[in-house]
Design brief:
alpha/beta; Alpha-Beta Plaits; 590 residues; disordered C terminus; 18 helices; Ubiquitin-like (UB roll); Rossmann fold
Amino acid sequence: MNLVNLTINNKSVSVPKGSTILDAAKKLNIKIPTLCHLNMSEVNIVNQCSSCRVCMVSVGKGLVPACGTLAKEGMNVQTNTKDAINARKRVVELLLSDHPQDCLICDKNGNCELQSIAANLGIREIRFKGEQSFAKTDTSTKSIIKNYDKCILCRRCETMCNDIQTVGALSGVNRGFNTKVGTFFNTNLCDTECTFCGQCISVCPTGALTEVNNIPLVWDALHQNEKTVIVQVAPSVRVAIGEEFGLEAGTISTGKMVAALKSLGFKYVFDTNFGADLTIMEEAAEFINRFKENKNLPLLTSCCPAWINFIEKKYPEHLNLTSTCKSPQGMFGAIAKNYLAPKVLNIEPKNMYVVSVMPCVAKKYECSRNELGQDNIPDVDISITTRELAKMIKEAGIDLANLDEEPFDIPLGESTGAADIFGTTGGVLEAALRTAYEWITNKELKDVNFSSIRGFEGIKEASIDVDGTIVNVCVVSTLGNARKIMDEVISGKSKYHIIEVMACPGGCVAGGGQPYHHGDYDIIKKRAQGLYNIDEIKKLRKSHENPSIITLYNEFLDKPCSNIAHKYLHTHYFNKSKIYKNEESLTTNE
């Protein structure tokens, strides 16, 4: 490896050739403020656009941006000269001069990188007075709000949307003072190619991009007496919510989270993991049927709503490959309203209100899809993010970190370890393989860990020996990588039999509704490890061994992929390509 030797603040450091000054400074634990820079190199996300100029440092007699300047042999860098500090202050002051002064009521208050840098630089007044830009806030979607007035043109969202997700919903438009990062022809976000993955929210340093706030609607539901209000919680929430209360990333907070939800007033607190185990029952059976018939392969998983939006818009002619299974959120809601309500609680489905807590903002949109329900009654009434749940807990004055642990309610609170790993990339496929292997071979699977499909690479593949039969599998995270694999499928080069796709880098642990990680991918890895730790200690680690799932099939669903299972647990998808947007034809793979 070719190394470059330089000094920063009179400290020597050696870095690989091609590294930036910012990279070198990080190696010395020297902090240089950044706004436009985005570095999640473990999942191939690096943005060095140097547009904001907040990271200016002194080299020789001049100033250069640390994030976009390559380290050179013998370079002498000073990060805290008077000129460098004043340059940073001036840039931030200029940004603040065209920024709304409503920090106290901003959704990003306390998590705003612009706010933090201004505080660290000691900025206590706006010296530059002048005209401010104003634009209408885009509230057209069920998932994402775009407040153009708070955009600082860092282009992080553009990098994520165009380069990583390859969706192409956002771009820089106009020039000069009127420049903004928006949609083509000022189209409402709901009418663009946006999949609502929320990764733009995850990387936005200010309040320019936030999720739709559903907290007031949940409080309203909890404070009325007409309906039985229940809640389900996704697997990755339990290893992330603790971060909002000072706990280490990856801390398993399941019991404390359940206790907090009960304190908030939910009648029953259930686990989306139950829906995940149910998903495996249906999806494994569906895969086995297709594999035996050699039809509609590769099977594409359907748990991620942003991925479903992507394939509906970009590859609608291949919807027949997509699993017809609803997501765990949808399956849970369907069973809660059509089995739990009438058969266990003796109430009508319309009198049950289902709230979901998800790591994902696309789940908000998924709840609104008309096909996900029965008789005009939605499977899930409303979804909130991990961040929103944390806000509700804080609003109620509940100290989550010091709560005594409580268990989920039964029967829809019982789950296996296979369900827990749904929250990380590769987890859905691994869970499916655990069940499919035993169903195909009628033999016990001794080692349930499919380590070859774990990890954070954007594309992982493996060939699994199922009692002499080879099953070729693929795990994909980010929509950009999904595009690469879909192009292989279309060209006939794909050898895969089943493909798992998650829109977010690393899976749901890095979802758009999770606590902000500010580009620190170690946080994402700790969350994922937390889920694997839960799986390891669970007595049951295969979905088909869940006693409550077995009872559900015996009493209600008959068997996986039965007619009644298809009625409540499966769905269909639509051609949403712009080319065919005026057609009413439905593409179904049932």
